Amino acid sequence: MQSCAIVDIAMRTPAIKSFFLRLSETFNYTAGQHVDVRLIAPNGYTAIRSYSIASYPSDSKVIELAIERLTDGEVSPFFHDITQVGDTVELRGPLGGHFLWPGPSSKPVLLIGAGSGVVPLMAMLRYRKASAEPVPVALLLSSRTWREVLFRDELLELERSLPNFALALALTREPTTRRTDFSRRIDAKMVADVAARLPVSPGCAVVPMQGDVSVKEMGAKQMLSRTIGVDGLKIFYREGRAPGRGTSTSRSTASQHSRSGIRPCSQ
């Protein structure tokens, strides 16, 4: 574990904030990896949560974590309601080696995500821009409403400025106003439509399974392989102790943790 100072906080959507952490020890990571964040209450209760890194790999000692506030959560309400710039937290990482940016490739990449599941995909897109890799990329992102699209303005700017990048939004609770978007949950026909916007069939698909994405209902890997002809398909299932979920060392309720004052380790 290393101690990190929070140097900035940005509101991204009504339920998601970005926290910018300055590392005390620089580490090398790949777009798609995550870190474990540890908080300790005065009574010794420890909570650990895993969060994907939203920033792209660079020489900077600052990384970005986008954290969604869960009403029944233990750690996310602390970050949203209590944490301030200047506070410190402890984290371990980078972690995860099976859900990464595929690296230089001659074949296009298809990214599919929903809600906060776009965070590691955003790191990949940011890296794709910074590295100037020519590989074509398409992102199919599901969100309940236009207002809740995480990194919406940045994604729209990438759509305008990044060569060989296609963006499609699937809004599940309101009509879309863009011709290239959809007003329903993700399904096989939609995936095929977005994949067809790439110059050739993608050689890799990266899919965090979370939120409104119904890829799991469609047969996941088998369905995607049949629909878009992907052989080297990569799927990351956001279950168990995957980024954004995590584990605790006690079965106490969230309200009990709030009363006991769960806080960063260094406070």
Can you summarize this structure?
With 267 residues, this protein is of the alpha/beta class.
Describe the 3D structure:
The protein is of the alpha/beta class and 267 residues long. The chain folds into 2 domains: 2-95 and 242-264, Elongation Factor Tu (Ef-tu), domain 3, CATH 2.40.30; 109-237, Rossmann fold. The protein contains 6 helices and 13 strands. The protein has helices spanning 76-81, 119-131, 152-161, 188-195, 220-228, 254-260, and strands at 2-13, 16-23, 34-40, 46-52, 62-68, 88-95, 109-114, 137-143, 165-171, 204-209, 234-237, 247-248, 263-264. Strands 1, 2, 3, 4, 5, 6, 12 and 13 form an 8-stranded antiparallel sheet that branches. Strands 9-8-7-10-11 form a 5-stranded parallel sheet, sandwiched between helices. Helix 3 links the parallel strand 8 (137-143) and strand 9 (165-171). The protein is globular, with a radius of gyration of 19 Å.
List the main descriptive attributes of the protein structure presented here.
five-stranded parallel sheet, Rossmann fold, eight-stranded antiparallel sheet, alpha/beta, globular, Elongation Factor Tu (Ef-tu), domain 3, about 270 residues, single chain
- The CATH topology name of the largest domain reads Rossmann fold
- Inertia-based shape: globular
Q: What is the averaged pLDDT score?
A: 82
* CATH top level assignment of the largest domain: Alpha Beta
Which SSEs are present, and which pair or pack?
Layout: E1 2-13, E2 16-23, E3 34-40, E4 46-52, E5 62-68, H1 76-81, E6 88-95, E7 109-114, H2 119-131, E8 137-143, H3 152-161, E9 165-171, H4 188-195, E10 204-209, H5 220-228, E11 234-237, E12 247-248, H6 254-260, E13 263-264
